[in-house]
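Homework-ish question, so no full write-ups if that breaks the rules, but can someone show me the predicted structure for this set?
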Amino acid sequence: DVKVTQSSRYLVKRTGEKVFLECVQDMDHENMFWYRQDPGLGLRLIYFSYDVKMKEKGDIPEGYSVSREKKERFSLILESASTNQTSMYLCASSGGGAKNIQYFGAGTRLSVL
Amino acid sequence: AQKITQTQPGMFVQEKEAVTLDCTYDTSDPSYGLFWYKQPSSGEMIFLIYQGSYDQQNATEGRYSLNFQKARKSANLVISASQLGDSAMYFCAMRGISGNTGKLIFGQGTTLQVKP
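A: Not a homework solution, just the prediction itself:
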């Protein structure tokens, strides 16, 4: 069975803190993605990675960075958390092929106070 | 630019009836894929169904079918025989020609409530 695991379901942080959101997939997928979800806006892509140590900016990368040191793990980093980064964060992975379906984790609800 | 539009913020359906969730898209790519995902209140996004732009037939997966009208650029999801467990938010998404990375663009979502 497909499995994408996000380290935390809920997280509360203070403004200015450095925040790490971790994502692990067990499907040997090349591609991994970080999205944020806000009401009325759907999902917006922050960053994605198509290989170890490779990354590309998505549509809203400002204020975020990522790390992919191992194939199965993709980390999202908020260098200095701000209140406008309060959101739901979703990680996904895909293995290519004709359909190239993305499989998602359960999400992390981050509140920045 | 690519865009997905879901014009129904919320929908109600009676249990055991069929319901159609609307999705229109805009792209200049000749080849693309269309997806529907379900997001229950628990938060996880669950893949439901896929339609390729060159597929001749509409996709079906159990009680889910995709009404694909290429000329009208629409990809509506049809859920037959609705169940209480179908209550969730549903997202339409599209993947254009973006290499093998599978980058998706999502619509705003439609909340479906199934009434007993």
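Now go work out the reasoning yourself. Hint: DSSP finds no helices and twelve strands in chain B.
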